[in-house]
Design brief:
- This is Solute-binding protein family 5 domain-containing protein.
- InterPro entries: Peptide/Ni-bd (IPR030678), SBP_5 (IPR039424), SBP_5_dom (IPR000914).
- One of its GO terms (molecular function) is peptide transmembrane transporter activity.
- Keywords: Membrane, Signal, Transmembrane, Transmembrane helix, Transport.
- The protein has 485 residues and is α+β, with helices and mostly antiparallel strands.
- 31% of the residues lie in helices and 22% in strands.
- The protein folds into three domains: 119 residues, Dipeptide-binding Protein, domain 1; 113 residues, Periplasmic binding protein-like II (D-Maltodextrin-Binding Protein, domain 2, 3-Layer(aba) Sandwich); 183 residues, Dipeptide-binding Protein, domain 3, CATH 3.10.105.10.
- It has a seven-stranded mixed beta sheet, sandwiched between helices. It has a six-stranded mixed beta sheet with strand order 12-16-11-15-13-14. It has a four-stranded antiparallel beta sheet with strand order 2-3-5-4.
- The longest helix has 22 residues.
- It is globular.
Length: 485
């Protein structure tokens, strides 16, 4: 140390300043290397969780986001290998060795059988039930099981991109208590992140959920989700540095944000006006309503160009109509504004339209599940496979089916069934084109637009690789590559 002081004192003032400055820079660099930033990522989401449960999660984006991280995909994460029989009706899967639930119990074929049988039981009202109707499942050993199909089902492997439930946790819960069980919001999964805790407000609403890493490959050690009732509060939370990411950003709010990366995701999602065919039965009235809808106006004014037209163009005659009906939509700003544009356009041809805005939870419980609407402005997300059976087959008119228009056409039903049993992709596409022609003719819905999904994350978060994803929740598919710097 004395030697250091002698050297410093031997220098002139200019040399001394230069040496001390360089030493200071070296010290700062060493500190930045040795002290790594805390690997905690906080994301804000509009809405709140209800079922962090892969059997029930499909109708709520928040639930899907959480289950994506807490539960591994049966086909992509948990399966070591699979074989398909020559007749395409038997699928044998082998689980990876040493898989563990977050309570350190082993993942076995019994868990898979329990999950599939739960989905198939109508008492549980799983939205996934349609994908597993008429499908048998047999256990071969602790790691191996076999699906047995009555008919060829082209998108079957896609159907296996689901999480499974731990039998030892759920088997004692009665079917009538299944949807009410606390395990729905305090889940035990087998994915890269495990549930740590949650916080509730005084009135019992879930305000945040904290997850911690369960996978050594993951750099981020904690993910905290905070829940907000609307986008403005979400934006405010980011601007005040309470969160690092926004699950969704509307185009109009992009200019308000800084120090952020915006990922533009292309997902198979469309928004449409779904007519309740039991209430708005007049085809000519529906045609007149479709004829005056300006899709490009909605894309330009509401989405600020961040989207493209969905479905066919409608060239019906613009006749005046004498029709009164309600239009239900959720409280997303774009949908509220779109509803107002539609109302104005429809009033110009004589329609009397009452727009009703619902919170996300109320939307499901009070309107969608009981089909309590004349017309519904809503979005649907398609699977990676083009099979639209769940959205348009007449067997799906009642909850938990997703036939929101209550569309019922035997010809359409036949085409949908035949297409999902056809392995020849060209033939399958021909059948879907015939189905689309019927859909345009019968007009159970007015297809409006496919939005570009805007996902915002602070620039301090690195390693994110996103472009085309099947669902918004699939933005976490490469979470093991994310890190904070």
């Amino acid at each position: 140390m004395q030697c250091f002081y002698k050297v410093i004192n031997s220098l002139n003032k200019k040399e001394r300043s230069l040496v001390l400055g360089l030493l200071g820079l070296i010290i700062v660099c060493l500190i930045s290397i040795l002290i790594k930033p805390e690997q905690i990522y906080i994301e804000g989401i509009i809405g709140s969780p209800r079922y962090i449960n892969p059997v029930l999660a499909q109708n709520n984006d928040v639930d899907l986001d959480l289950t994506e991280l807490i539960f591994g995909s049966l086909i992509f994460d948990l399966t070591e290998n699979y074989q398909i029989s020559d007749n395409q009706k038997e699928y044998t899967l082998i689980l990876k060795k040493d898989l563990k639930w977050h309570d350190n119990k082993p993942v076995t074929a019994d868990d898979v059988l329990f999950t599939i049988q739960t989905i198939q039981d109508p008492v549980y009202q799983s939205p996934l039930r349609i994908n597993f109707q008429g499908i048998g499942i047999e256990k071969i050993d602790e790691q191996t099981f076999k699906f047995i199909l009555k008919d060829v089902y082209a998108p079957f492997l896609t159907s296996l991109d689901i999480g499974i439930l731990p039998k030892h946790v759920w088997q004692e819960i009665a079917p009538q208590s299944f949807a009410l069980a606390e395990t729905n919001i305090k889940p035990i999964g087998n994915g890269p992140f495990k549930f740590k805790n949650l916080k509730k407000s005084k009135n019992g609403e879930i305000k945040s959920v904290d997850l911690e890493s369960f996978d050594d490959r993951v750099s981020i050690k904690n993910i905290i989700f905070k829940f907000y009732p609307n986008e403005q509060e979400l934006i405010n939370a980011f601007l005040s540095r309470q969160i690092d990411g926004l699950s969704y950003v509307s185009p109009k709010n992009l200019e308000k944000l800084n120090n952020i990366n915006i990922y533009k995701l292309i997902i198979p999602r469309y928004f449409a006006v779904f007519f309740n065919m039991d209430k708005i039965k007049d085809l000519k009235a529906r045609q007149s309503l479709a004829a005056v809808v300006d899709k490009q106006k909605i894309i330009d004014q509401i989405l600020l160009g961040q989207g493209y037209k969905a479905g066919p163009e409608y060239d019906f005659q613009k006749d005046n109509i004498d029709l009164s009906f309600n239009l239900i939509t959720t409280n997303w700003p774009e949908l509220v504004q779109t509803a107002e544009i539609l109302k104005q356009e429809w009033q110009e041809i004589g329609a009397k339209v009452e727009v009703k805005i619902a919170e996300s939870n109320s939307m499901q419980q009070d309107y969608i599940r009981p089909r309590n609407y004349d017309a519904l402005l809503f979005g649907e997300v398609l699977s990676p496979d083009p099979d639209p059976f769940a959205f348009w087959h007449s067997s799906q008119k009642k909850d938990p089916g997703l036939n929101l228009s209550l569309y019922d056409n035997p010809k359409a039903d036949k085409l949908l069934v035949e297409a999902r049993q056809t392995l020849d992709q060209e033939k399958r596409q021909e059948l879907y084109e015939q189905f689309k022609d019927l859909l345009k003719k019968d007009l159970p819905a007015i297809f409006l637009y496919n939005p570009v999904y805007l996902y915002g994350v602070s620039k301090k978060v690195h390693g994110i690789e996103l472009n085309e994803v099947a669902l918004p929740s699939k933005r976490f598919e490469n979470i093991e590559k994310w890190y904070i710097k």
